[in-house]
Amino acid sequence: MTLAISYKPAAASNYNRGRPGAIDMVVMHVEEGSEVGTAATFADTTRHASAHYGIGKNGLVDQFVADCDTAWHAGNGTINRRSLGIEMEGFTASFAPTIAQMSAAIELVGTLCMKYTIPIDRQHIIGHSEVPDPIHPGQLGGANNHTDPGPNFDINGFVAAVAAFVATPQAPSTV
Q: In degrees to the nearest 10, what's the CA dihedral of 22, 41, 55, 141?
């Protein structure tokens, strides 16, 4: 599979241009809605939120913020500056990724890990629910204590699938 990525830019007021250091993490999210709704939210100049990519249930990938810029996705500025945020269409409470969505997520994250030499392990590929709250030490989920991607997303299995994708020769992706 080779990913085709559509560019749907976030409003410039919803992310920072550039980033101060290297990309060494991926944060997985669930959109709490549709891919179309997420694109509209990130394009809204009043929302002050964004992510780098979104993956629809149909497996199509949208890019909202360039990798070289800092998206506002984790509720923690330190994590935002060093990570790429990947949103997946759905709702945390009932998240049931499709085969197409998971295949696209595995390929996207695997390709990004290869491109930026991000270690493929649980310290570098995390869920939003694992981001430290910068205001309340000891709490997780970023500043708003998010719980996504939630219990229905097997992040350990996902990381293993990303590692298997990277270890298997395949055609280069378009990322």
A: 60
